Amino acid sequence: QVQFVESGGGLVQPGGSLRLSCVASGFTFGGTTMSWYRQAPGKGRERVATITPSSHDQNYVASVKGRFTISRDNAKNTVFLQMNSLIPDDTAVYYCNGNFDSWGQGTQVTVSS
Description:
Radius of gyration: 13 Å
Low-confidence stretches: none
Number of strands: 10
Number of helices: 0
């Protein structure tokens, strides 16, 4: 079955960096466009970054453009999100997905001084 295991979150001060990882299984990872999403307290889930199967194209929501970088390693069924210059509004639970109904447990990112 489709599974996602996210990791790498934590507590970081404003201006800091984190690198999230997501290991996927149960589908053809190398042929699937992958995305990172986030859900802040009291808000809906928001897609923040997308990467095509070959990594040729990446797209970002305006609020993270220039600060976040999505990448992938198809040999390891893993997608990454490098987050730099973090701000308090980036505080959320972060998830990865490939447009499936199943979701992982997510990884908590808290940006606070």
